[in-house]
Amino acid sequence: MSIDSLKAALPDYAKDLKLNLGALANDFVLTPQQLGGTFIASAIASRNPAVTHALVAEYGPKMTPEALQAARSAAAIMGMNNVYYRFVHLVGGDYGKMPARLRMNVIANPGVDKADFELWAMAVSAINGCGLCMESHERQLREAGITTEQIQAAVRVAATVHGVAVTLDGVEIPA
């Protein structure tokens, strides 16, 4: 599978997703590694095996093994952190003052440029709806020199990939 096969699998009522998917795949606001990692981390976070398979097949070969591993790690660690920190953010109280006591070593040593990892973590956090994490990642990205256009591009990828996953969950994918 590839981006073209994902577009072909989308029903006519999801034409906007097809157009967005194609446009974002050719967007040059992000580096090729940033773009590929954002697509892959977003696909994993969207929890649709067909979408994940297609986007790893499309972008995995274009990335270093370390970058591919880091994109997967961003999805994994943020899958945990987004639940925990969304709870802290929404409930308030003393929870924000307490140590999380969850291992998050990959954030300090992701194996790729820290800004790329933060961008992928931002995309996953947007999908998972963790405001506290999005604020933190956005701050880290801006401090690293990532532009608002680049951050927006990553979130646009996340939104589109998630929309594709949701759509394909509701239709039968032809073999």
UniProtKB/TrEMBL annotation:
Residues 94-172 form the Carboxymuconolactone decarboxylase-like domain. The keyword Oxidoreductase applies. GO terms for molecular function: disulfide oxidoreductase activity; hydroperoxide reductase activity; peroxiredoxin activity. It catalyses: N(6)-[(R)-dihydrolipoyl]-L-lysyl-[lipoyl-carrier protein] + a hydroperoxide = N(6)-[(R)-lipoyl]-L-lysyl-[lipoyl-carrier protein] + an alcohol + H2O. SUPFAM superfamilies: AhpD-like. One of its GO terms (biological process) is cell redox homeostasis. Pfam families: CMD. The active site is at C130, C133. Disulfide bonds join C130-C133. Transmembrane segments: none annotated. Keywords: Antioxidant, Disulfide bond, Oxidoreductase, Peroxidase, Redox-active center. Its EC number is 1.11.1.28. Belongs to the AhpD family. Antioxidant protein with alkyl hydroperoxidase activity. Required for the reduction of the AhpC active site cysteine residues and for the regeneration of the AhpC enzyme activity. PANTHER family: ALKYL HYDROPEROXIDE REDUCTASE AHPD (PTHR33930:SF7). This is Alkyl hydroperoxide reductase AhpD. The gene is ahpD.
